[in-house]
Amino acid sequence: MKAEILSIGTELLLGQIVDTNAQWLAGELSGHGIDLYFISQVGDNRGRLVETLQRAWNRSELIICSGGLGPTDDDLTREAIGDLLEEKMIVQEPIANALREYFSLRNIIMPEKNIKQAALIPSAEFLDNPIGTAPGWWVSKDGHIIVAMPGVPHEMKQMWENQVVPRLKPLFPPGVILSRTLKILGKGESAVEEMVKDLITSNNPTMATYAKPDGVHLRITAKSADETTARDLIFEMEIKARTILGTLIYGDDDETIEGVVGTMLTDRNLTLGIMEVGTGGMVAALLSEAPNSINFLRGGLVSQQRSMLAGWGVDSNMLEKYGIMSREVAEVMATAARRQTGAEAGLAICVSPGHGEFEGKPAGQIIMAVDLDGHLESSELNYRTKPSEVKRLAAVFSLNLLRRALLK
Amino acid sequence: MKAEILSIGTELLLGQIVDTNAQWLAGELSGHGIDLYFISQVGDNRGRLVETLQRAWNRSELIICSGGLGPTDDDLTREAIGDLLEEKMIVQEPIANALREYFSLRNIIMPEKNIKQAALIPSAEFLDNPIGTAPGWWVSKDGHIIVAMPGVPHEMKQMWENQVVPRLKPLFPPGVILSRTLKILGKGESAVEEMVKDLITSNNPTMATYAKPDGVHLRITAKSADETTARDLIFEMEIKARTILGTLIYGDDDETIEGVVGTMLTDRNLTLGIMEVGTGGMVAALLSEAPNSINFLRGGLVSQQRSMLAGWGVDSNMLEKYGIMSREVAEVMATAARRQTGAEAGLAICVSPGHGEFEGKPAGQIIMAVDLDGHLESSELNYRTKPSEVKRLAAVFSLNLLRRALLK
């Protein structure tokens, strides 16, 4: 069964709201194994609405609409479905009364406009909406199904779960779809794809790479009649991927780089001190998102000024000789961070985040160093992107440098 | 001119990401008075991509695409446009070399598949992308324009503003729509709306409130035949709004709370030291986004551990007596932050961000204090929301506390 999502409302075309309904519904459909090929947003215009519905009708068996069920003249989803199927809307008295009751409960006289929310076409049945005035429509005709739900997200979600899913269940393909994500730091998306290119050709499970803020995500998705088989399919593929990518993989599914590093530190009974230049404390901020950070994160020191750094134990002669933006100084800073906070591990990061040069290095320069009980590691790279992005990358990469040092 | 937006990427159809690009572009188009009738999301499938482009071509003169410009095999926007116009892609050597350079700068050999990012069809020209590897395409043929931009939001936005808008300008309809945003901290959205309710009824200019991460935004939008009239309309309305809201307004349009505070400090020749508990350095991170932060931001100290705080000059007896999460200690911390960094101003923030209690205060507790040359100000509040949100709010509110202290 092919499905299509239509989000209806002129406010979507004016950019006044972002279409989170479509995203949520798309997730639901893929979770139930229904193929979704198209999502469209269309305004409150009867002609264009019918045109869009007609196209969806021609290429999809299941059309899921949200929005346009309100009482006002520009709520036209019902009318458009009626036009499409050439059926007239008829007011259903019981529902009309329930609607009047809903208003009288609030001591409001129902505006007569609202009566259309109690109307149906012959091919439609109501989808109950206990938390709003607009009931949905379930339309079934000629092997096609049209679902019309309110645009208000929480009304739509409740209607989907309680009214729509039970009706759709018999149409869901048998079996389950499971997916698992492996998270990678240390290589870019195309490099990772290159490494696993032989696996990506697989059909079940499928494998795909995504560039994300916390690295490259490798998603393995398996379809199967039963959960066990799906799990096995994923497991076999995961083994192959891990064999190729090894420690480039820092975590999976809900794991985060800050959480992983936090756990490694906690397991090894290590505390950490951080010194940051040019990130404004982004590394500490990110790491503080990790559970237990209160225990393992001793403290963070943030400045871009040589005098402050010297005050925190960074050798002034080194600053003089190499400048802040050097691996030499970054390593001294890592040690200073460790000593200043009385921690076993020290992490230093020096970033040139601005638009111009900083300490003789171009914008986007990232230098990081780790001092693990005296063992030093450092690395240097450059990213050409906006300052806030450089800082975020620097934070993620420096935590990965620390992770790799802890692996040894 | 009729426009249409296509957002390209299978992750949109799987519900893995929400399509914020379409919303942002829709807002841009309506701001420039261009009619947008359709938005579609389509997956990384060459056939369906061409089908969708063909339909857009048939009904719209301007087709704006984002996504599918990456280097990998499932990035097919260029190929699909080539199919639609029956034109072959040809690699452009100068761009190919620039691309190789970009990689060698980062000491990486460019994966050969990236070369397609340097290819064009005859009807296309490149849209420069200084902050990413994928240049965009500007395609002009038979009275139609196709714009292809990267899916990465900040790359897309910069390309739109610097490359696309200038090329589209001649096509914009006469008459202008101008808008101006006033940014407010210190009152919630409904309170602000209540204060300006008499102004919100106006039709031209219109006025609307939006709850945003950096406070309440009050947007004034005016339509007019000429820019001067539109500006005047906005100006009159802005005066009225400012009369009502006064110093609750911290900035306008592109101004940020960190930028405003940074400018105030710079103008007054003041430097700042920050001490943060429970935010992981969020305040320093935010403030470091301000221009010149390198000059006025002396340093930031981040920890959740009493022993560290004591080491930074926070009186241990006070910590003993009141605990970290108290206005008494926050004020001592503000002074310690000032002294430790040798700054004129000290800002302290103590947050209980976790899910449980911290130092006897419930999750969501935010205590902040400012020491301005010895004058102390502090405040305390509680927000019931997720930890990352609490930290963000704390950072914004503490900068507003500093702003208000600087106003005196």
UniProtKB/TrEMBL annotation, chains A, B:
Question: CDD domains of this UniProt entry?
Answer: cinA
Q: Which InterPro entries match?
A: CinA, CinA-like_C, CinA_C, CinA_KH, Competence-induced_CinA, MoaB/Mog-like_dom_sf, MoaB/Mog_dom
What positions does the domain MoaB/Mog occupy?
4-171
Q: Which SMART domains match?
A: MoCF_biosynth
Origin: domain of life: Bacteria
The family database entries (HAMAP family) matched by this protein are listed as: CinA_B (MF_00226_B)
Query: Family per UniProt?
Result: Belongs to the CinA family.
Report the protein name in the record.
CinA-like protein
Q: Which organism is it from?
A: Candidatus Chlorohelix allophototropha
Organism classification: Bacteria, Bacillati, Chloroflexota, Chloroflexia, Candidatus Chloroheliales
